[in-house]
Give the backbone structure.
Amino acid sequence: MAVLWGVSFDATPLSGVVVEFVKTARHFHDRGYEVHLDLGYDIKADKGRFFLPYRDEALLLPPWVRLSRLPDVAAVDGYDASLATSVLQEVVEKGDLRLLPQVERIAEALCDRLLSLWESLGVTRVLVENGTLPENIMFTHALQKAIVRYGARHHLGRYVLWRDHDLMWQSEPGTGKYGRAPYPNVPPLLDSVHVRYLALHEQAKALTRAWAPHVRHIDVLPNAFPHRPATVGPQNASFRADHGIPEGARLIARTTRIIPQKRIDRDIHLLAQLAETMDVYLFVAGDTGEDPREYRRLTALADDLGVADRTVFGGWLVPDPDAIGASAGHGYSVRDLLAHADLVSFLTSYDYDSYGNPIGESIAAEVPYISSGYELYPTVYGDKGFRAPVLHDDLPTPAFVNEVAQLLNDDDLRARTAEHNHRLGERHFGRSTAEGLLERLVLTPMGLRTRMSVILPVYNEAANLTAVLESLHGQRGRDGRLDPELYEIVVVDNNSSDDTVALAKRFADDHPDLSLHIVHEPEQGVSCARRTGMLFAAERSAGRPGGPASAAGERFYLVSADADCQVDPRWLSSLLEAMDASGADLGVCDYFYRAEHFAGRPRLWDAISRTLRCRAVAFSLFGGFPDGKGFAVEREAHDRAGGIEIFYQLEGGRFVNHLSDDWDFGIKVSALGGSRVYAPDSRVEINPRRVDHALEEVIEGKAYGSGGTIVMRDIRPGSDGQVATPVRDLTAEEARRAWEFSIKDFVPKNLLLPVLLEPDLLGSGPVRDFFGPSLAGALRQRIGEIVEEMRILDFTPIHRYKTPSFRLYFEFADALFERLRATVGEDIGHPPPLPDCLADVPRERFREFVAYYCEDRESGEAHDYFGNGGVF
């Protein structure tokens, strides 16, 4: 059985942190996980629960949550609440490091106990709540050690979700309780293949990245709430009567801890001023015993202001049972209070709260709220358009009181405000938000034997999709059908408005033997869709049982496909065999057209076939570079490269994403030391529409844009109202131009770029034989000179490799074409004419002006000369 073990650093039986744990854990429980939780009594010292036995805490939680405490903690020599407090004050706050040896000794002892507990439970997932808040760095160190050791021992991938509700910069930063930025004595975040960090909002994510730039895997998981209006029913009809609140009185609800930082005194001052003109009550839900001094202060204040009879301290209320799945029958819940409340208040301190769960709960329950302008209020709520009176002063001002009074007295205004906030809240904080992220990261199960995820970006591909999916379903191995348990399909919908998604779902229903997932990418562009699909598959493969590699050392591959292309029956099995046999990080397919699609068009077919012959030679020499039509990447190589990178450029005065994500990704993987293998038996048939419907652009060398911009119009017949282009052959002049653009695109990308990335290839083996000793030596020397001259050691981004490869083309064109003629055939011919601007350049200054020409970014002259990628 899959087992989730979680720990809360909050050290309370029920808090916002614990509630969010339960909400998250419920997603796992619904998928068959056994759920365990440590409430953190033996972690956080200021709650007074160190070593306190659990008693009735389980009654506050759903029955499927098992309280599972770290065993024998009290037996760790020296570990107790006083030491935790001393470490926080001396090491973290003051920077006195004399206690560090004791910290490390105790961390090792706690780590051993964690490992023993996880082994006994058979833990497969860990959820840490608030672990970065350095209240107890001994336990944090222990968790980090245990995560690394347990993950390595069981070959687990990214099995830990580490979520922070509070951070040093969000939790009383003015007190210096956790030291001062950059918090040198706080345990740094663990950069591990086993951990994914979750922040509550984008600002927390940005601050975390700034504090811990070494950590890449950070996502935003906002607190989620079930968005249903709270209503009065049989189960809570007597709530007001039981608490002495008249039915006709206005009721303000405050659900919070009763501690000074929460500023409940503001609510009492507000109540006193409102009570001068209306019948109004304040209900404070919270543990009155947590801070007895603060409770006495607040009750004295209510008495002094004459509203003691209107201030109800109602004690603990359980969370919404529907929100966390808790059992009924344990008294009133927060939801019962909200059903009777006219207004929810959250007038907290400026620098104390990070999320403001009471606001989220009120929005979800369709009750208006008021808030103080605490530090993160704009980030979480205010900037999203929620409507509420906001207090920006220490105590309620007459203007603020009047605004609250207007809201309480106007039933229609309250209803409109609540409905507006509820609608916005469902969009930003509904369950689907958390569900979508968790589904992408960890929840969608992956088969134990799955070796490959085929990523298929789609946008209005209803005409082609079924045939493509059938070809993937019918993949074959050497001895028959390829075992469908070895691979899966990830369809990435990129805002399709036709029946694409419905067809994918129907196909999945009709073919249950093949796992098919549908994910969505809202940003338009095949690059974005491919990136999302690969991230989805990479995350799930890293967390699958057995980890990223099985005990047998099997690797996992992400495979790209295009919805308008057809794959041969042995496409996948040939790729898998080539990748496994070579140990390569990238596997490149063979791309081909069917000659019958160009029957009666001999000139066009001649230009295409010559290009494909050149490509076969280059791919055999260098392994080729990925094309979105079909390639594979080993998962860990994908992660090292950071996944598909999206580049942006200006088109028509606005930024659009770049189309060269596949090539650039291959370059990045290669530049990081990744190897490539060409799999000639893994064949992808290119859809002839790529030529037929862009024929004029092919002839003009503008198939992927011009003027320095790389774009491609939608070439599907009928898209954007276009009329299908009549099928025709090229004239002799058009054929010449099409071939020249094709070969000019081919040489820099396929012959020069590989040796730019790896100059040592020119020193020996088939590559040296292809170029010949003289040209190989000259290229190697010149590459070294250009690298030194340009001061660029990394040709990874697209615009870095273009300039040097273009320059090498001009300088060595005659010699390069000589080698192509000798290897591929005499019909390759000679280099196309130089640009006119270079024709009159003195020979001795040729290299100098070539550099100027290739660096000309404003006009895109070099970009246009090379045709920016022929579609052949």
In short: The longest helix spans residues 732-757. Residues 547-552 have pLDDT under 50 and may be disordered. The radius of gyration is 33 Å. The domain at 3-220 is CATH 3.40.50 (Rossmann fold).
